[in-house]
Specification:
3-stranded antiparallel beta sheet, binds fe (ii) ion, alpha+beta, 270 residues, 36% helix
């Protein structure tokens, strides 16, 4: 394999913080009755931000529940999606196949432009991802998004990738931690890198300067398209759209093509 093809591998593009776009989702999405059923589902309750599904136990939460038949149907649709997504990823990103771990599926039926969320949970502010309840512990966060809406585009904006952003904000992030994060650090099982990434998430969302003046690239994801992103290394915001179906994964450090670009390595390198 020549150096040019190595430089252009999807794995490396992802690890550098790029969005990799597929105009047509390259695996089977919910169709027919299952598709109509999914479009009918709504978020339920105030605890969960989105409808989510754990492929390890087959359970869905956060949806407006009507009866057992509906819950079973939803879990089957999510289960089929999770299997199709993982099977495709193993083929599309062969370097990751031995080290990819399924995390969660989420379905976001609500319009991003108008939904009401507390400031720190808002999707429409630029941020990097860190999952408070599921520490990465050296693994990278890879997310596969699809736009299921029949007619509406999903709109994102992206800004600096982590390797460029980190030198600009690192000191301020370390200094600016709030008391709630400090308390959570004491009881959590998080690595120093996990703790920093949670602080960075909060810092970026709270930074008026970064939200207003950071570099910006606008993305329009049409119905039926898919996109892959390592959201721990790509600053992004979801501005508009509804009915996104997404699957998050962890990629173990030993299969990374550019381990030097992982948050933990960037932080260690200072
Ligand atoms: Fe996010």
């Amino acid at each position: 394999m020549g150096s040019a093809s190595v430089a252009e591998s999807v794995e490396e593009r992802l690890e550098r913080g790029e969005v990799v776009f597929y105009p047509q989702t390259p695996f089977i999405l919910p169709a027919g009755e299952d598709y109509a059923f999914l479009l009918d589902q709504q978020s339920g309750g105030v605890i969960h931000k989105d409808i989510s599904f754990n492929p390890h136990n087959g359970k869905a939460i956060g949806f407006a529940r009507h009866d057992v038949i509906q819950a079973d149907h939803l879990e089957r649709v999510f289960g089929d999606f999770a299997r199709a997504a993982l099977d495709w990823l193993r083929l599309a990103l062969p370097s990751y196949a031995p080290g990819i771990e399924a995390d969660r599926v989420s379905y976001r039926p609500e319009e991003e432009a108008t939904r009401r969320l507390r400031h720190n949970a808002r999707n429409d502010l630029l941020h990097v991802d860190a999952f408070p309840g599921r520490p990465a512990r050296g693994r990278r966060i890879l997310r596969l998004f699809t736009n299921l809406h029949p007619t509406e585009t999903r709109v994102w904006v992206t800004s600096e990738p982590l390797p460029r952003l980190l030198p600009q904000v690192r000191d301020r992030v370390t200094r600016g931690t709030n008391w709630w994060r400090r308390l959570a650090d004491l009881v959590g099982r998080r690595s120093p890198s996990d703790r920093f990434m949670l602080r960075l998430h909060d810092f970026l969302k709270a930074s008026h300067d970064f939200q207003k003046h950071g570099s910006r690239r606008l993305w329009h994801f049409p119905p039926g398209s898919a996109w892959l992103v390592m959201t721990d290394g790509c600053t992004y915001a979801e501005l508009r759209g509804r009915c996104a179906l997404e699957h998050s994964f962890f990629v173990r450090p030993e299969v990374l093509v550019r381990p030097d670009l992982a948050p933990e390595a960037l932080l260690r390198a200072g």
